[in-house]
Amino acid sequence: MWIDTHCHLDAPEFDADRAAVVARARAAGVTQLVLPAVGAFDFETVRTLAHQHGFAYALGIHPLYVMDAKEQDLILLAELLERYRDDPRLVAVGEIGLDFFVPGLDAARQDFFYTAQLKLAQRFALPVILHVRRSADPLLRGLRRFKVPGGIAHAFNGSRQQAEAFIALGFKLGFGGTLTYERSQQIRRLAAELPPEALVLETDAPDIPPHWLYKTAEQRAGGAATGRNEPAELPRIAESLAALRGWTAEQTAARTRANACTALPRLQTLEDGAHG
Q1: What is the pTM of this model?
Q2: Mean pLDDT, 10 residues at a time, over the chain (276 residues)?
Q3: What CA–CA distances, in Å, run from 171 to 39, 127, 207, 236?
């Protein structure tokens, strides 16, 4: 019984077979997905999908989308967080954060949207799901200024010191397909050595494919289909974490599920309802 704490089920890559993707996930034992929004255009889409399939969702504006976002989108976000504040499937504000990897993004604009959304998370007492790419330290500065009830640092790839700083602020760290690459030595080391209560699992589907789905540039140029990730891959990704920690599959599932429910407490309510 697995929880995928980060899946973009609304992505166009799933338009042709979304129901089959969900069916494969459930057949693989992935019983819960968290669907984070990335912009105002998909706020209602992720909510609808979550209710349709019995999943959880988060509402937020992703740093890669703030260039096209309007300040009016923040007003809409606040209105929806108010409207759905009692919706048990609304588990976080997200995906929000900062991205200093992709060139050409306005750092000040990113920070404006990040700060505004931290304030909303504070106001509605919701955890946050963070996008962290070459941005751990400024993200941490924001979290120290605007206290939120924890959350998840998605696809974490920072240093040990940064990891410990997020953990100290009540965050769990998301690990996914990158764990399956032997060359990802820093991430694998962190997954092996950090406290067990700090780790959650995710796919980031359709992105961050595990090594067995990865296609090289040469393969793609030769016409090979891009290796689409999907939530059914989570148990196999988890095998890498289990091997690094010396855990069984059952221990890995139980620990990471418990951690996900601690990071996003409304997940526990959904879990209790599903098995009550």
Answers
A1: 0.96
A2: 97 97 98 98 98 98 97 98 98 98 95 98 98 97 97 97 98 98 97 98 97 83 79 98 98 98 96 75
A3: 23, 9, 22, 24
